Structure formats: structure tokens, C-alpha cells
Amino acid sequence: MREIVFDTETTGLSFAGGDRLVEIGCVELINKVETGRTFHAYINPERSMPAEAQAVHGLGDAFLADKPVFAALVGELLEFLGDAPLVAHNAGFDFSFLNGELGRCGHPEVCRTRMVDTLVLARTRHPGAKHTLDALCTRYGIDRSHRVLHGALLDAQLLAQVYVELSGGRQIGLSLAVEVATIEVVAPATRAVVRPARPHAASEEELARHAEFLATVKEPLWGAPALG
Asked: Are 42 and 63 in contact (CB under 8 A)?
């Protein structure tokens, strides 16, 4: 199964309020394993960068001035996304900017049925815990020491590892076919053995010895008169 884990950086919190996309990073997974294929782009937002947003991701007006606008790279982005499910942390936010930019340049929105929200997964699996990307990396022992500022591709790569753990860990892609052997125990067939009948009549010699023995018995019980 192919999935795309992605993250965005923006000029603020609301596309409808005039904020724009400035960076997108995507990581391809096949059966929950990273393939090494990525998509990454910085985007000229065609507006100034608020200081509070720049403090989060470090992307300023001077850096973004010569970057392509979204419409110039949308074809390449959509080709990479394909029809795969799209995984993001607090995915509603990222989808709102992705679909906002798509609509702005005349493309259909990405259907939200393709959305997989790792924030929802984390809240379900670890209720009451912290669910930020940093907190989840710490929980699962994922190295985030190089995450000084937010960055779309870096965060997507970290999120891909978190997503695998939230989905059950590295064993999730391993399918084991277990064959159950049914052993039928059959009792061995028995065959009747026919033996010749034993003789039951005493021989003449045996009768003679018996008579001699009885003659030696004094006052046998079988000869006493019956009690009346």
C-alpha cells in the first residue's frame, strides 16, 4: 500500500485569512516502509512573511523571493501525490492550505477521505499524553536532535517514523502465513485371529488319575449325608 506523509510551512494559521503556503515536504511509504522517494519545495507566497511565522520556520522574504509560485510546481506535486492516502499531523491544517492553493490555481481539491491524521491516532493510542511531534519522537525514541526549526521535509521524515510506530511498529509490514496442520489420528485396524478350539473333555489318563486321588480322601464332604 502506498501512502504519502507530508508537512507544510506557512505564513500563518489561516488560508482564508490571507496566509499562504511557503514549503511542502512529502515522504513516500510502501507498506509502512520509506522508499527513499521524497518531494520537497519552497514556495514564493507572493506576500510578506510575518515575524512570528518566520520565528517558527526561519523562512524570510529574502530567501523565498526567487522561489517558484505554487502554480509553477503544482503538476509535479500532484504527480508525486497520486491517489495515495495523505498522512499529516493535525492534518486538517495542512489540508486547508494544500486545498486552498490548489483551488487558487484552478485544480480540484484533494478529497478529505484520503486524510490520515496522526494527531487523532496519537490521542487514541496515548490518551492524556502530549501529542506534539517532539513529544511523540521522544516517546518512540526517534532522534530529533537536528530539528532546531520547523522544516516541512524534516518534519515529514520524522512524522513518517512516528506514523509507523502509531500503526503498530516495524512489524506491521510483515505478513506471516501460518499453516495449521490437522493431524488425523487413526487407530490401527485390528484383525481377529481365529484360533482352534481348546479341548474341554478330560482324557482317559486324566480320568484314571483323578479316580486314584479320590480313593485316598477320607470322609469326603461330598459323601456326607444331607442335613434335613
From this structure: yes
Cell numbers linked to 7? 508537512
Q: How far apart, in whole angstroms, are the C-alpha atoms of residue 78 and residue 73?
A: 9
Cell of 107: 485544480
Instruction: Give the active site residue among 57, 89, 131, 150.
Output: 150
pLDDT in tens, 179-208: 333 334 444 455 555 566 555 667 777 778
C-alpha angle 154-105-158 in degrees, rounded to nearest 5 = 10
Query: What pLDDT was estimated at residue 178?
Result: 33
C-alpha cell at 164: 509507523
pLDDT tens digit string along 125-168? 999 999 999 999 999 999 998 887 899 999 999 999 999 999 99
CB 12 within 8 A of CB 19: yes
Taken as a whole, the chain contains a residue count of: 228
User: Does 150 participate in catalysis according to the annotation?
Assistant: yes
Structure confidence by residue, pLDDT tens digits, 54-76: 999 999 999 999 999 999 999 99
Residues 24 and 43 sit within 8 Å (Cβ to Cβ): yes
Q: Are the C-beta atoms of 91 and 116 separated by less than 8 Å?
A: yes
Mean pLDDT of 110-115: 97
CB 21 within 8 A of CB 105: no
- Phi then psi for residue 88, to 5 deg, are -150, 160
Q: Give the integer Cα–Cα distance in Å for 147 and 149.
A: 6
